[in-house]
């Protein structure tokens, strides 16, 4: 009988040890599960954020409704008609594009000089430039002194932070007259978001 009691006690101790070991394993597994669940939730949130940022569409194409664009020295060339303005980031009153999201942007612009506008004065050539904030990122020249019309174009791919501004500008210290026509737009400014950050 004594040996049966000892055997029962040993069995109880072994079972208790096994249960305690199972409790420790259960606690460890429970903690690992909670950690993995938190990581999964963080990854889902990051995926949603990346998906939302990649679904941003920004594009504009601006031109003028006026035949002559008078741009004073060192000032933006204001194109008052946005044929396309997805995202409403181009302001037709100021001629300034404001980036709604950080990312890589593509800009292009063209200018035209018509000899019939200002014939015989020093403005028979004009320059235009694309600026990001105060920095020139592209420039072109249109020189109608050797012909009736002359056309220049430029292109830039730049990274902008949200809120940064880009615009077409007369970079010279003298006023210029740019040629345009809504039916046949020669002086234009366009851009689009290639990829958001």
Helix content: 25-40%
CATH topology of the largest domain: Jelly Rolls
- Based on CA atoms alone, the radius of gyration comes out at 34 Å
Mean pLDDT: 80
Notes on the protein architecture:
The chain has one helix and 13 strands; from the N terminus they run αβββββββββββββ. With 197 residues, the chain is an alpha+beta fold. It has two domains: 1-55; 59-196, Jelly Rolls, CATH 2.60.120. Strands 3, 5, 6, 8, 9 and 11 form a six-stranded antiparallel beta sheet that branches. A hairpin with a 2-residue loop joins strand 8 (125-132) and strand 9 (135-143). The model has no long low-confidence stretch (mean pLDDT 80).
Summarize the SSE layout with pairings.
Blueprint: H1 2-54, E1 59-63, E2 68-71, E3 75-76, E4 81-86, E5 90-91, E6 96-98, E7 103-114, E8 125-132, E9 135-143, E10 149-160, E11 165-170, E12 176-179, E13 188-196
Antiparallel strand pairs: 1-4, 1-13, 2-12, 3-11, 5-6, 6-11, 7-10, 7-13, 8-9, 8-11
């Amino acid at each position: 009988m004594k040996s049966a009691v000892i055997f029962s006690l040993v069995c109880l101790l072994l079972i208790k040890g096994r249960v305690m070991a199972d409790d420790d394993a259960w606690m460890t597994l429970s903690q690992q599960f909670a950690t993995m669940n938190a990581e999964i939730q963080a990854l889902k949130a990051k995926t949603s954020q990346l998906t939302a940022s990649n679904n941003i569409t920004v594009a504009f194409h601006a031109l003028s409704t006026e035949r002559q664009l008078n741009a004073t020295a060192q000032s933006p060339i204001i194109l008052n008609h946005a044929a396309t303005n997805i995202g409403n980031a181009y302001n037709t009153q100021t001629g300034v594009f404001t980036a709604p999201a950080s990312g890589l942007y593509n800009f292009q612009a063209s200018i035209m000089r018509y000899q019939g506008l200002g014939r015989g004065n020093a403005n028979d050539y004009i320059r235009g430039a694309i600026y990001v904030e105060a920095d020139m990122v592209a420039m072109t020249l249109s020189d109608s002194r050797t012909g009736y019309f002359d056309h220049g174009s430029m292109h830039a791919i730049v990274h902008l932070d949200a809120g940064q501004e880009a615009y077409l500008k007369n970079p010279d210290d003298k006023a210029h007259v740019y040629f345009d026509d809504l039916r046949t737009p020669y002086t234009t400014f366009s851009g689009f978001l290639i990829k958001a950050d």
